[in-house]
Amino acid sequence: MAAITCIDDLKQLYRRRVPRMFYDYAESGSYTEQTFRDNSDDFARIRLRQKVAVDMSGRNVASTMIGQPVAMPLALAPVGMTGMQCADGEIKAARAAAKFGVPYTLSTMSICSIEDVAAHSDKPFWFQLYVMRDEDFVDATLERARRAGCSALVLTLDLQILGQRHKDLKNGLSAPPRLTLPVLMDLATRWRWGSQMLRTKRRFFGNIVGHAKNVGDTASLSSWTAEQFDPKLDWSKIARIRDQWGGKLILKGILDPEDARIAADFGADAIIVSNHGGRQLDGALSSIRMLPQIVEAVGDQIEVHMDSGIRSGQDVLKALALGAHAAHIGRAYIYGLGAMGEEGVSAALDIIRKELDVTMALCGERDIAALGRHNLQLPTGFLTEYA
Question: What superfamily does domain 7-375 belong to in CATH?
Answer without folding.
Answer: Aldolase class I (3.20.20.70)
